[in-house]
Amino acid sequence: MGDIVMKCLVTGGAGFIGTNLIKRLLRDGHEVISIDNYCTGFKENEQDGCKYYNSDVKDNFWDLSTNCQCEVSCDCSIGEVDVIFHLAALARIQPSFDEPKKTLDTNITGTVNILEWARHNDIQVVYAGSSSMHHGIFNSPYAWSKYNGEELCKLYSKIYNLNTTICRFYNVYGPHHIRTGNYATVIGVFEQQYLDNHPLTITDDGEQRRDFTHVDDIVDGLVRCAGKDFRAEEFELGRGINYSINEIADMFGGDYPKKYILKRAGEYDMTLCTDDKAYKLLNWKPTKNIEEYVKKWIKGRI
User: Fold this and answer.
1) Checking phi first, is residue 232 left (phi over 0); if not, alpha (psi -120 to 50) or beta?
2) Which of 95, 100, 108, 200 could form a Cys-Cys staple with 141, CB 3.0–4.6 A?
3) pTM confidence score
4) What is the DSSP string of the chain?
5) Tens digits of per-residue pLDDT, 157-197?
6) Minimal CA–CA distance to 240: which of 184, 183, 287, 205?
7) Which residues are 124's β-sheet partners?
8) Computed over its alpha carbons, how large is the radius of gyration of the chain?
9) How many whole angstroms separate alpha carbon 102 and alpha carbon 9?
10) Cα–chain-centroid distance for residue 169?
11) Could you say which architecture CATH assigns to the domain 7-174+213-239+276-287?
């Protein structure tokens, strides 16, 4: 995005990654708007300087004259936007088995609505994909929904020449991640269990490996896509190093209690980003590692 000031719309802006993205955009001097239904986002994540709308991207609220019509009563004139960062989604594998329709409605219909609004107003869309598509799109409703979101981006780029970018995330962690409930992240769960002096729960034998990528690195990749002229260009945003869940648990203390639980449906053995296109085309280089993060967190520095 360089030195150009842009007007950015972030869907899911009160959520984990959205909050960190908005912080970065505001710090860089951009104008930022958020749309979030606060299903997995939180009011306490709201940042001064960003305008927040409580609405749902899966509802047909887009007025193609560049205004949105929310179910709630509010002045919701968004006006012209330069780029949409489409992060809004139900973003976990396990809950998607219990609520497939809700997952598909949110992740697919919401993406169609965003792309429709974008094509009528010639707005770049940066889509939050998922590395789960590499492990079988039929292994969970979540994986299928995120894969089809990518396919929609490709469709709109091909037919309507819409500027879209697909960024696949790998096991994101960092400030504002969810620690409790169905949509909690692995690291978030471990943090909460550590704070509560409870054993760290590990599924199966704990030897499954994950490429944990800090949210600041993910945000940097997203920001580097803005302002570029792409047609469904695909980028893998992963650290390029993976750890077993056992190794992650040991970072909280080799002697800290652990509890092994049954393997869950839809889980896979390994994630690891090996694609370097983001390095070549975006000059993107992840810099943060999970070991240092856990050390700082335990010492109370995060």
Assistant:
1) left
2) 100
3) 0.93
4) -TT---EEEEETTTSHHHHHHHHHHHHTT-EEEEEE-SSS--GGG--TTEEEEE--TTSS-EETTTEE--SS-S-------SEEEE--S---HHHHHH-HHHHHIIIIIHHHHHHHHHHHHT-EEEEEEEGGGGG-TTS-HHHHHHHHHHHHHHHHHHHH---EEEEEE-SEESTT---SSTT--HHHHHHHHHHTT-PEEEETTS--EE--EEHHHHHHHHHHHTT---EEEEEEE--S--EEHHHHHHHT-TTS-EEEE---TT--SB------HHHHHH-------HHHHHHHHHTT--
5) 999 999 999 999 999 999 999 999 988 999 999 999 999 99
6) 287
7) 83
8) 19
9) 23
10) 7
11) 3-Layer(aba) Sandwich (3.40)
Q: Encoding tokens for residue 215?
A: 């949210």
Tens of pLDDT along 16-72? Answer: 999 999 999 999 999 999 999 999 999 999 999 999 999 888 775 554 334 444 443
**Which neighbouring-strand residues pair with 67?**
63
Dig out the tokens for 40 from the structure: 């997995």
Nearest to 11 by CA among 121, 122, 93, 87: 87
How far, in Å, CA of 37 to CA of 45, rounded?
A: 13
How far apart CA 235 and CA 139 sit, in angstroms, is 22
Longest dimension (CA), the chain: 60
Position of tokens 């704070």?
195
Taking the C-alpha atoms of residue 221 and residue 197, their distance in angstroms, rounded to an integer, is: 35
